[in-house]
């Protein structure tokens, strides 16, 4: 750009930039191509190739109880966590936004710090022991509770931000008419902050749907394993990996997160929540 | 759980705004008539869960780390207190130091250099562009970031496969065993692929706040691309760069996905700290020693997070004093810039 007088140099530069862009495009696309081709191939190999088109793989997947069960498990875990996270964080965020409880700012700061340093990987030993102590090993509830505990601080922060910006006059009038606080919350606050609740819900589902470590640690019986763990056993257990099954399963398992992401970015605009995957 | 950390980004200002709220802006009114007692009841269920599943594990790590607790054998029934022995042992343990070095290499190579560099390059290139090429590239980068980790792990295993992997087909190097011969390089490149989206988005937001007129002026004055970056862009997005580096370092440091690709192998050549702790604590059943290693990991996390939060706090304080001091053009622009962080 410095030398617009020299067209040859500018051209060379332009070509160079596009070459780099093309390489980057290839870098990001190549590992994913297989996911687009193999599920539709009659005889999927490990190499990417134009599929010999069929939908039979999906039928086989549907008849594989292991695969279907694991998707159901993922659904239970994600749904359970989303309900708990959205419900509890909404209550907490509302109270923290409207009432100045002493030590609130310190509390928020501490939670924030804690949730960023106590990750699943750094705390796996006590989490495992705690679950054993509470008799929560091999139960969905255990996984849901552990994940909810980890996600709640972030959810409260996001929602408190939403609640802080909503007008309070409606709540006051409702109160004049004698509505109870829970009722005010349900009929007035929830509709106003619905985008916030949706964000937190989608974000929770995405987090839990992809989480591998916690169910891997806590769920012992294979028929309870969610898709993340079953996917892993599909290719690590001995023998020849069944590529038709793995590829179709991967596609089906990935689809909900991708759709949710598209939905959120279309509906609410992709707001940059500090990199929260949603 | 890694992305839990992301709350820091937008949460800290919220936490920090509290006191200013009470004095400066609209006074807090208890509009719904909750009252303190009921408010406490609203907060309690969330707090109980957090205390049980977040605070307790952290404290427990501390305690366990000071015992010789094991999954099986005599210490499983009656663990004894060993104090700092585990920590001292770890600091002299070659396999721990080895995995710590690998983790630092992983963080430095894939996050600090790879993701931040590529993410910035992407944001810079996309800055003034639109059209299908940009949309496609952006979509692919984001897709790599949102797919579930056990799926991308297998995609990479297939991509790098020794016989018939797409990479070997493309490069015409059949039989090149990337995951065996260059395991660390493989997972570093993998993680750049996986995580560049975050840096790209953060830098895109940051670059949106660099006034185009300033770049134009620099260009007219004959500044080269590099000089524009150095003199006009970097000084303005320094805060974002730091934020980004700290967050992606924290996440990469705690990332468990290498386990899904290489399981720490071959011969522990990709055994980063999370994988090492998993193998020590639950693989070999040395729970006490594993907890001590977890404690060291928490300590490193704490240092990074505290640096990050202090910087955020500083930024907010600066913003507050600046907006308070006057409505000068400089102040307004500055706070706008920081708002986007």
UniProtKB/TrEMBL annotation, chain A:
It is found in: Cell membrane. CDD domains: TM_PBP2. PROSITE patterns: ABC_TM1. It comes from the Bacteria. Keywords: Cell membrane, Membrane, Sugar transport, Transmembrane, Transmembrane helix, Transport. Pfam families: BPD_transp_1 (PF00528). This is Multiple sugar transport system permease protein. It comes from Streptomyces qinglanensis.
TrEMBL record, chain B:
It comes from Streptomyces qinglanensis. Keywords: Cell membrane, Membrane, Sugar transport, Transmembrane, Transmembrane helix, Transport. InterPro entries: MetI-like, MetI-like_sf. GO terms for biological process: transmembrane transport. Residues 96-308 form the ABC transmembrane type-1 domain. Belongs to the binding-protein-dependent transport system permease family. This is Multiple sugar transport system permease protein. Its main location: membrane.
